[in-house]
Automatic annotation (TrEMBL):
Start and end residues of each Helicase ATP-binding domain: 17-179
Any one Gene Ontology molecular-function term assigned to this protein's record: helicase activity
Keywords linked to the UniProt accession: ATP-binding, Helicase, Hydrolase, Nucleotide-binding
Domain Helicase C-terminal: 205-371
Organism encoding this protein: Alteromonas ponticola
Lineage: superkingdom: Bacteria
PROSITE patterns membership: HELICASE_ATP_BIND_1, HELICASE_CTER
Protein name in UniProt: ATP-dependent helicase HrpB
Gene that this sequence comes from: hrpB
Region (Disordered), start-end ranges: 803-826
């Protein structure tokens, strides 16, 4: 073990870890400051394992920083014993024994080398962040271990682990727990801050913290926009000769990141304005105070629109603990939180797993390329059925799937290190010439970059106005993509035409093509509406959208390129359609028939039609009725009573005596217009043009006809619509959604009845709502015999005084039922 490693608490479990990985997987819990990311990988390195150690980290800046730090401990350059690999960048050699990688690297390595040849241990660090790549990488590594490499060892490490859940995936793993190394940190809760005051409160609190501590101050903000605004406020407040301000976020240039992490060379106090990138793993020198806004920007994929929605939300308790821990690494520190203590206790314990919020089309493609359906993988959280359905639709649309099987084209797409639609764009562009390929490569690189802080919205403007650092990143990544489809080098963006950039976007995102409406907004091919950012005016009729942002119910276009309709006609000739359409107009509450010209869901022209086949009206009504929630169906009370009776029949599994060839299963209905055959009401609907006509249809009869005859007979036999009561009168039985059968009847009509009354072959007891002579409820009971002997006495006293002309016998159980007053009873 190297010098000074003994000072870290994680050193206490280093020997146990080295012993455990000889035979088992390991789960390591270590609080902030324990040194797990440095001590434990180095301890494993000393074991002279036969193969390389892979150490996964969630962020590129962490990978680079950790690699340089560990290499410095060995007095070696990066790339020798300690190396690293991130997308498009690596420093490794044949001597490398510990390779630090970003999470997405692992799954691609496994796809290309299913045995993980030459790898002895895979370490999943900061597992609590639950990135989609971590979850998928672990699932694949488990399959490799179980099917091909029983000598491969997996180590899962984090400061805030739900060990019990992880143990379900690794049941034989050895659990190791390290103590933390953290000095006391004073917590200062500033109370809940209004959204419009967060930046000014952060600036004032940072200024205060600078005066309270001698060390540096680390401030956590939601995103780049907040960092820029707080920086402006601070620069107006503080003396730059004493304090230097740094920014820290993922898209920042490497040299600027390094400056933020290291002590100031002139000894000035530093203020570091950071996103949640600074929560874990990064070694940031000399932090003595943390100012935490408690906010983070979380991007979630909107299944309907196909864009990401950026939500600002409160962090989890686990993140708050990580952030606070930064102030107590070297000495006692202070943590200022812009929320109330009682609010802290209500924060979520852990952040939601990324796999539940993301577009999972890439994950689905990779899992199918691997050979295991997504639902068969060892995932802590499975994506929802809606996520999976949207992903399947995407892959089918681009030709990667057919009949839920991966096509040869899909397998080719899976070899590209990008989203499947971007790979599809690159391959399609490769058939359209060199300059189109170059434009596609640049669009692919721009799509993956975080350009939220740019002022431009036109893709061509963004590419031509990139700062030096961003231009270098985009150009480097575009060259990598271009190398996958061409041997030519990348020309300058200025040498490419606007039309070529528009074509590239259209190839990747045909459902994000948009047409300008009369109101100045845009209608997307997927049916959604979108608007330009404030101050941006676009005169083009058609645009191809690369990025848009969902803000509440509004979709804001962030990056786009105008495109000519002639280009779209050449790319998607079959998407321009003329058809006769019948649809329900909710304003007029009637069907409208029109001749429509459209591109996907964009209506370009619509004219009334005078003659339309009735069958189209029926189909349109069916389509509308199938979208309605249950409570909005056009049913009268008779139809609802039929519905409730059918629900009870299915629940009680009532017999069907007329079913001579074997009992038919009772249908389980959630929506009758999707669950029952439509032929019984299709002709009736064909004659309807207005909603009121649909409401007047004999729905009870039509629905009943959709059942098999034995089921109709069983409903009438076991769940009758009426009941003969002791007064010899037939009264209606009211069935309800709770599965009850209720008869409302005047009390005098039930005299003489003492037994419980049942329907459904004795399985359902009728509830009697006994009424006064004026029809008001007096008592509800299923047991008349007990009622007559019990609470009837109190009701009798009151009713005799209020209704003296009516019969209130002392022995109702043996009295004659009546519908008349005492004067007419004899």
């Amino acid at each position: 073990m190297l010098k000074n490693q003994e000072a870290f608490p994680a050193y206490a479990i280093a020997a146990s870890l080295c012993e455990a990985v000889q035979t088992n997987n390991v789960i390591v819990s270590a609080p902030p400051g324990a040194g797990k990311s440095t001590v434990l990988p180095l301890a494993l390195l000393q074991q002279k394992l036969p193969g390389r150690i892979l150490l996964m980290q969630p962020r590129r800046v962490v990978v680079r920083s950790l690699a340089h730090y560990l290499a410095s401990l060995l007095n070696e350059p990066v790339g020798k014993t300690i190396g690293y690999r991130v997308r498009g960048e690596s420093q490794v050699s044949h001597e490398t024994k510990l390779e630090i990688i970003t999470e997405g690297i692992l799954s691609r390595r496994i796809q290309s080398d299913p045995e993980l040849s030459g790898i002895s241990v895979v370490i999943f660090d900061e597992f609590h962040e639950r990135s989609i790549h971590t979850d998928f990488g672990l699932a694949l590594a488990l399959e490799v271990q179980q099917g091909l490499r029983d000598d491969l060892r997996l180590v899962i490490m984090s400061a805030t682990l739900d060990v019990q859940r992880i143990q379900t995936l690794l049941p034989d793993a050895i659990n190791l727990q390290s103590e933390g190394k953290m000095y006391p940190v004073e917590e200062h809760y500033l109370g809940q801050v209004k959204a419009e005051s967060v930046n000014s409160t952060m600036a004032a609190t940072i200024e205060h913290a600078c005066g309270e501590v001698d060390g540096d101050v680390l401030a956590f903000l939601a995103g780049i926009g907040a960092i820029r605004k707080v920086r402006q406020l601070l620069e107006a407040k503080i003396n730059s000769s004493d304090i230097v301000i740094h920014e820290l976020y993922g898209a920042l240039e490497k040299s600027a990141q390094l400056a933020a992490l290291q002590p100031d060379p002139s000894g000035k106090q530093k203020v570091i304005l950071a996103t949640n990138i600074a929560e874990t793993s990064l070694t940031i020198a000399n932090i003595e105070a943390v100012v935490d806004s408690g906010l983070e920007n979380v991007a979630s994929y909107q299944l309907e629109g196909g864009f990401k929605q950026l939500n600002q939300q409160m962090i989890s308790q686990a993140s708050a603990t990580q952030r606070k821990g930064r102030a107590g690494r070297l000495r006692p520190g202070k943590c200022y939180r812009l929320w109330a203590k009682e609010q802290h206790d209500r924060l979520a314990k852990q952040a939601q797993a990324q796999i539940l919020q993301e577009d999972i089309a890439p994950l689905l493609l990779e899992s199918l390329a691997w050979g295991s359906p997504l639902n068969d993988l060892a995932l802590l959280d499975l994506p929802s059925s809606a996520q999976q359905s949207a992903a399947f639709d995407t892959l089918v649309r681009i030709g990667a799937l057919r009949d839920q099987q991966l096509t040869p084209y899909g397998r080719q797409l899976a070899t590209f290190p990008c989203h499947p639609v971007i790979a599809h764009m690159l391959l399609k562009s490769s058939k359209l010439g060199d300059t189109q390929m170059a434009a596609a490569a640049l669009v692919a690189a721009l799509y993956e970059e975080n350009m939220a802080h740019t002022q431009s919205v036109l893709v061509t403007d963004i590419l031509r106005q990139l700062d030096t650092f961003s231009n270098k990143r985009v150009t480097r990544q575009a060259n990598r993509y271009l190398s996958l489809i061409s041997e030519r080098s990348l020309p300058t963006p200025g040498s490419l035409t606007d039309e070529e950039f528009a074509t590239a976007i259209a190839l990747a995102f045909p459902r994000h093509l948009a047409f300008k409406s009369a109101q100045g907004t845009f209608k997307l091919a997927n049916g959604k509406g979108a608007t330009m950012p404030p101050g941006v005016i676009e005169t083009a009729e058609w645009i191809a959208i690369l990025h848009a942002q969902s803000l509440g119910n509004e979709l804001i276009i962030r990056q786009y390129q105008p495109i000519a309709q002639a280009q779209l006609s050449a790319l998607y000739p079959d998407s321009f359609i003329r058809e006769k359409r019948v649809h329900y107009d909710s304003a007029s509450k009637q069907m409208q028939a029109r001749q429509v010209a459209r591109f996907d869901k964009i209506v370009l022209d619509s004219r009334p039609l005078s003659e339309v086949p009735k069958a189209q009206f029926a189909e349109a009504w069916m389509a509308h009725l199938q979208t309605l929630p249950l409570q909005q169906l056009p049913f009268d009370e008779k139809a609802w009573q039929w519905w409730y009776r059918l629900q009870i029949a299915e629940k009680l599994m009532l017999p069907q005596p007329q079913s001579y060839d074997g009992r038919c299963a009772w249908p389980v209905l959630t929506q009758p217009f999707t669950d029952l055959p439509a032929e019984f009401w299709r002709d009736k609907l064909a004659s309807c043009k207005k909603w009121e006509q649909v409401e007047k249809l004999p729905w009870k009869t039509l629905l009943n006809q959709a059942l098999e005859w034995p089921q109709q007979h069983a409903l009438d036999t076991y769940l009758p619509e009426s009941l003969t009561i002791p007064s010899k009168r037939n009264v209606t039985i009211e069935y309800d959604a709770n599965g009850s059968a209720i008869v409302a009847v005047k009390m005098q009509e039930m005299y003489g009845e003492t037994k419980r009354v049942h329907v459904a072959g004795g399985k359902l007891c009728i509830t009697f709502s006994l009424l006064s002579p004026a029809g008001r409820p007096l008592q509800t009971t299923q047991d008349l015999g007990s009622f007559w002997q019990g609470s009837y006495r109190e009701i009798q006293k009151e009713m005799k005084g209020r209704y003296p002309k009516h019969f209130w016998p002392d022995d109702p159980a043996n009295a004659e039922p009546t519908t008349r007053t005492k004067k007419f009873m004899n």
